[in-house]
Amino acid sequence: SQSDFKGSGYGYGWYVGKLRDAEHVWHYGSTCGFSTRIERFPGKKLSVIVLANRRDTPISPIVEKIIELFW
After folding, report:
1. Between 20 and 30 A from 15 (CA), which of 7, 28, 50, 57?
2. Model pTM?
């Protein structure tokens, strides 16, 4: 459901904001047995999705490097 925290940048399960002056929509999470991170830049037509079948896999550096290579 929609976030009750107006101005939080979070709604319908997605964080919404700007990164490097581009519209940025993202979500991440982990639980028993897996980790995920999805980063979308609609205006740039870029989506980065990293899935791991272990909770302790450091996926954030992978996503950040891919975004860095794009810019």
Report:
1. 57
2. 0.76
